[in-house]
Amino acid sequence: MICFTYPGQGSQKAGMGSDWVDHPSWELVAEASQAANRDIAHLLLNADDEELRQTRNSQLATFMVSMIALDATGRVGIDTACHAGHSLGEYSALVAAGVIDFVDGVRLVTERGEAMQIAAEEQHGTMAAIMGLDDNLVEQACQQTQGEVWVANYNAPGQVVIAGVPDIVDAASQIARELGAKRVVNLPVGGAFHTPFMASARERLKKIISQTEFRAPDHPVYANVDANAHSGASEWPELLSSQLTSPVRWRQSLHNMCDAGYSTFVEIGPGAVLTGTVKRTTKDAKPLKINSPADIDIALEALASPPTTVTGPLEGEALFATERLVVSPAVGIFQPANTELANTPVAAGHLLGHVGETEVRSPWAGIVVGFLAVSGERVTASQPIAWLRTQ
Q: What global pTM score does this model have?
């Protein structure tokens, strides 16, 4: 089975939206900019690494690349059977699963970034990754300092992040080395995230969470706080607010997903951090990533060749590498150009019909398997219109 995963803060880099500018999914940027009252195109195209390191910028930019990549992935028909996001990525997962709508997701992420930035400025903190040491020994290192330092992320076996007062983090890091840690990496962040230092941000975020409508997900979403799958709506307000001051249990989430039968993990968004954690956590899973348009065809081809240990199709996979969906470019009434096109070869650019006055043309050459919208049906933007086989 397939699980979509969504990265968090730290995966951002300058110009990370440039690959998507000419893709139809880039249209989400204008909608998000209006909802956030921010110039998101600037963050994705022109902001340098220093500007993107600011929490208020990195979170919104990372979320948006995940949303663009998710929309593009949906346009070719790749589907999932569950969702999971790391820290900020949990908001991407909730939008993807339909728990919150896109505009509410933009507003929540914008407020979260602001709240966490202010909290970090009020209470100076830092984070460090402890490499090559068991979880319990990292916890022991924190406890031995008897100061304000905590485990913030359980990312993968032998990869745990601690956070707190800088001097105390340094002391705990030294103890971790004495206990056998292979390496300590100080992270270039401006706060001690997922610790009690984020208490003020949690209180601020609660207000906008209380004004947000939550719905049951289309597929289970694994939560950072407890590493469990959740299929309802009512628990998410508390899970989201608790997440800010609780450790991210990502490794535990991966183990639980593998135990539930998920064998393919597709990272949707910038970077490949979560792909790396999958490789470190389980040897049997297939990790893939989609953070540029070029990755989509690679993912389609990889999904067309299931692991030899899997019998039958992967649940959550809608199309194989030689199949494509043509989606609606606009909102309106669909009228096919020719209802007899089924099983007919078409060239790239062939007119398939109209949505209102907007033309629907095939981006690919291939054979029309059939229409997924009927004549006279009102469709929304990005809704599948036709199904092509490109071989």
A: 0.80
